[in-house]
Amino acid sequence: MDAVVLELARSGWEIARTHEQDVEADRARPAADLILNMCQGAAASARLADVERAGALVVNRPESVLACHRHALVRALAGGDIPFPHTLIVPTWIPDDTARALADFLAGHALVWVKRGDVHAERPDDVLCVEPDEVPACIATFGARGITRLAVQAHVPGPVLKFYGLADQSFFRFYGAEAGAAAPPPRVDEARLRAVAFGAAARLGLNVFGGDVALPAPDAPVLIDINDWPSFAPFRRDAAAAIARYVHNAARTGVAA
């Protein structure tokens, strides 16, 4: 975000910064033609939705940010044409009917991922790969942290790719999660990878996005996560320039493609 803002300032934009807490408390309702949105919470998103309805262009849109919360993401992608692993959303306090559904789910898998069910991972232990008999302890640990719901997701074998993109497809990069951006990525059908990444972003209405796919086969990428406004860390300079061009053009036309 800082790098994008610097690019926009260099091209003549006047910049003002506001913290999410101030937006959430309605202490600062942004008055701007263009808002670059990194707010994650529902309250701030509701405030920004009001600003959007008043005519501001918001990138990413508040409803798209909330669609990336994992419980909403599972609903949006389940049963569609985007390859996505079988995932069960469970509360950290588990009633009997959920316990039965979870037991049935776990019986079919040798490994599962347990992920916090609200926002995307904020620290390493927000996403854990465990054996089925470890899941109850994981749920208890998340619950003790005050997290109220979890995603229990089937493990997809194969290497993992991380990707970053813009909705107009002017920027797209990917690399192998294990070896890093400096190493050659695992073999992948790039056209299929793009179809999965941009298809998921379009489903959620994301303009600036990143995520992960697993590759059980090079021509069969499976989306395992996607989120709004990622770090773009390995490609920050190129990404900042591309995002600045993208949002500048979107503000000029009034449409974020």
Mind sketching the topology for me?
Elements lengths: L1 H9 L9 H5 L9 E3 L5 H12 L3 E3 L2 H6 L2 H8 L9 E5 L4 H12 L4 E5 L10 E4 L4 H10 L4 E6 L5 E7 L5 E5 L13 H15 L3 E7 L7 E7 L7 H18 L4
Parallel strand pairs: 1-2
Antiparallel strand pairs: 3-6, 4-5, 4-6, 7-8, 7-9, 9-10
Helix pairs in contact: 1-9
Low-pLDDT stretches = none
Give the oligomer, counting copies of the same chain as homo and different chains as hetero.
single chain
Radius of gyration: 19 Å
Strand order of the largest sheet: 3-6-4-5
Structural class based on helices, strands and sheet pairing? alpha+beta
Mean pLDDT: 92
Number of strands: 10
Largest sheet: 4 strands, antiparallel
Kindly describe this structure:
The protein has 257 residues and is an alpha+beta fold. The chain is 37% helix and 20% strand. It contains nine helices and ten strands. Strands 3-6-4-5 form a four-stranded antiparallel sheet, with helices on both faces. Strands 8-7-9-10 form a four-stranded antiparallel sheet. Strands 1-2 form a two-stranded parallel sheet. A hairpin with a 7-residue loop joins β9 and β10. α1 crosses α9. The longest helix has 18 residues. The two termini are 19 Å apart.
Short summary:
The protein is an alpha+beta fold and 257 residues long. It has helices at 2-10, 20-24, 42-53, 62-67, 70-77, 96-107, 135-144, 190-204, 236-253, and strands at 34-36, 57-59, 87-91, 112-116, 127-130, 149-154, 160-166, 172-176, 208-214, 222-228. Helix 1 crosses helix 9.
